[in-house]
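From the shared-data thread, chain only:
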Amino acid sequence: QVQLVESGGGLVQAGGSLRLSCAASGSDIWINAMGWYRHTPGEQRDLVAAITRGGITSYAESVKGRFSISRDNDKNTVYLQMNSLKLEDTGVYYCSTGLTIATMNYRGQGTQVTVSS
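Structure, as tokens:
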């Protein structure tokens, strides 16, 4: 089992920045991949960014060049630096972990990110 504690969401104006953090505890095998999904009203969840313990990253096209994901393997903590935020970045961001990026099935409680004009 994995427990995830997220922090860092909030309200920000368009063009601003936020940094999300997620600390994981539990079996290391299920924390090999860490990342963030975004849920927006009326839409399915989208993978925003993910990173493996070895440093392989994956980003949604819509956030490339604006968001940066990193992790501290010693602390089992993943960070999502979000810059140049847009209105469409609004949503609930869920930290997720798993054996691979494609199988990140553990999920945190979510943190709200709201970008205003």
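The mean pLDDT is 95.
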